[in-house]
Amino acid sequence: MQHVWIVLGVLFVFLNIAAGLIWVERRLLALWQDRLGPNRAGPLGLFIVLADTLKLFFKEDWIPPFADKWVFILAPTVVVASVLMGLAIIPFAPGIVVADLNVGLMFFLAMSSLGVYSIVLGGWASNNKYSLLGALRGASQMIAYEVFMGLSLMGVVMLSRSFNLTEIVAAQEKIWYVFLQPVGFIIFFIAGLAETHRLPFDIPEAESELIAGFHAEYSGMKFGMFFIGEYLGISLISAMTVTLFFGGWLGPAFLPPVVWFFLKTFLFIGLFILLRASLPRPRYDQLMAYGWKLLLPLVLANLLITGAVALWLKS
Amino acid sequence: MGMSLQQIVFGVLSIISIISALGVILSKNPVTSVLCLIVTFFTIAGHYIMLNAQFLAVVHIIVYAGAIMVLFLFVIMLMNLNAEIEPQKRSWLKYAGAISGGALLLVLLAALREASVSSLQPGAVEIGLISNLGKTLFSTYVLPFEVSSILFLSAMVGAVVIGKKEGHES
Fold first, then answer.
1. pLDDT-based confidence at A140, cuts 50/70/90?
2. Please, are residues A284 and A137 in contact by the beta-carbon 8 Å criterion?
3. What is the CA radius of gyration of chain A?
4. What's the CA angle centered on A258, arms A157 and A153, to 5 degrees?
5. Using the beta-carbon criterion (under 8 Å), do B66 and A140 form an inter-chain contact?
6. What is the pLDDT of residues A248-302, one digit of tens each?
7. B62 and A106 in contact by Cβ < 8 A?
8. CB atoms closer than 10 angstroms to residue A255
9. Which residues of A fall within a CB distance of 8 Å from B65?
C-alpha cells in the first residue's frame, strides 16, 4: 500500500512542479530582464498557472488535414511518458523511491533517449517543412548529446561502483561527487540542457528561424503536453544532477532529507531559467562542432583520468 | 488452468512481439514499420527482464530503440519515403526473400531442437546482473570482448572515412 502512495505522491508533486514552473519561469525571467512579469491574477500573479492551463484546455484541438493523424497524436504523449518513467528511479529520501533498480542509472539514460521520438515523430507527422527541419535538428542534437551524457556519468559509476542510485547517494556521505567529478558534472549539465532542448540549445524549435520548429502545427492540449514535457524534463535533469553530483537527500540534520532534496533541485531549476535569460542561441553547426570536437575528447579524458586515479588509489 | 504470473506475462509479451513483428513486414508505410519494430524491441527487452538479464534489457532499449531506430526514422524522413511513391518490388526479389527467410527459419529450428532446458545451470540466472556480467566478460571472455571492441573501432574509423567529404583533404 505504501508503494502506491509513493507512486501517486511522485506523480502529484512533479506534475504540480511542472505546472508551477510556468509562473516561476515567467517571474524569474521578468526579474532578470527588469520587468514585472505576470502579476495580475491572484497573489503575486500565481493564478497565471490556472489561467494558462485553462486556456490550453479550451483552445481548439486542431489536427491539420495534411498530417499523419495517429503519429501526430502519439508524439506529444511520448515525451511526457518517458520523462515520468525516468522519475521512477530517483531516490527522494532513504526508502522513498518508486523503483530501486540495480541498473537505475542505465534506466534513466534509456528513458531520456526515448524522448527524442516525440520531436522526430511530431515534426514528421506535421507534414510541414519547418517542423521537419526542427525534427531533423532535434534528432541529430539529441543523439549526439546522449553520448556525452552517458559518458559523463561513468566517472560517478567508477567512484561509487554501482548503477543503483540509492547506493550512489549513500556513497557521497563523505564528499559530494561534484568535487571529485567537476568535469563530469559540467558536461552532464550541458548535455541535460541539450536533451531537454532548452535555451540556449532550443535549436529544434528556434522561433526566429523555424516559427516553432517541431511543434509548429500543434495546438491546445497537445501543444500543452510538449510544454509540460519540457518542464518535467527540466525537473528530471535537475533531480538527477542533485542525486548524482550533489549528494541527493544528504544534508545537515536540521531539515528532513526530502526538503534538502527539493531545495537543491529547485536551485538547479533556477539555473536552467537563468541560462535561458542570459545566453544566446548558437548556430546548429556550432552546436554539433562544440559537442563532437570539444565535449567528446573532454569526457573521454575525464573517464581515463578517473579510471587511472581510482586504480592507483586501490593499489 | 494453473498459470503462474510469469507464464501470463510471457504469453502477453510474446503475442505483442509477434503481432508487432508482423506489422513491420506487412505495413505499407515505412514509418509504421519503424514504429512496429520499436514496439518489438520493447517486448524483447521485456523478455530479457524475465530472464533476469536487466543490464541487457536496458542496453537493448538504449542502443536499438534509443539510437538505431531514431537513425532509421531520420533516413526515412530525409528520403521522404511513403506508400505512394515506393516502387513496386520485382517478383523474383519477393521469391528470393521468401527462400532466404525460410532457410534462416530452418537453421534456427534445427539449432533449437537440440537445445534442452536441463542444460541450464542454477547459477545461470544470476549471470544477467551487471556485476556478474562484467566479471565474466573481463575474465573468461576477455579476448573475444577486446577483439569485438577493435571491430567496433575499425567500423567507426571506416564510417568517418566514408563520411568525409572528398576534395577537402588537399
1. confident
2. yes
3. 20
4. 15
5. no
6. 888 787 888 888 888 899 999 999 999 888 888 888 888 888 888 898 999 999 9
7. yes
8. 11
9. 110, 113-114
Do A121 and B65 make contact, defined as CB atoms within 8 angstroms? no
Measured CA to CA in angstroms, residue A217 lies from A78, A214, A221, A226, B70 at distances of 17, 8, 12, 12, 21
Q: Provide the CATH number for the domain formed by B1-86 in this structure.
A: 1.20.120.1200
Q: Which residues of B touch A (CB under 8 A)?
A: 31, 35, 38, 54-55, 58-59, 61-62, 65-67, 70-71, 73-74, 77-78, 129-130
The answer to whether the beta carbons of residues A213 and A133 sit under 8 Å apart is yes
Residue B15's pLDDT is what? 93
End-to-end CA distance of chain B: 74
H or E element, residue A258: helix A257-278
In total, chain A counts a number of residues equal to 315
- Is-contact A263 A250, C-beta < 8 A? no
In the DSSP assignment, the letter for residue A280 is P
The Cα A284–Cα A194 span in angstroms is: 12
- Contact yes or no for B31 and A135 at CB 8 A: no
Q: pLDDT band at B133, cuts 50/70/90? A: confident
Asked if the peptide bond before residue A200 counts as cis, ω within 30 degrees of 0, the response is: yes
Q: How far is B153 from A286, CA to CA, in rounded Å? A: 26
- Residue range A68-73: mean pLDDT, rounded: 84
Query: Alpha-carbon distance A139 to B19, whole Å?
Result: 28
Predicted ipTM? 0.80
Residue boundaries of the structural domains of chain B = 1-86
Q: Please report, for chain A, the start and end positions of each structural domain, with discontinuous segments joined by +.
A: 56-314
Q: Tell me the residue type at A60.
A: E
Residue pair A153/A105 in contact (Cβ under 8 Å)? The answer is yes
| Contact assessment for residue A182 and residue A232, using Cβ atoms and an 8 Å cutoff | no
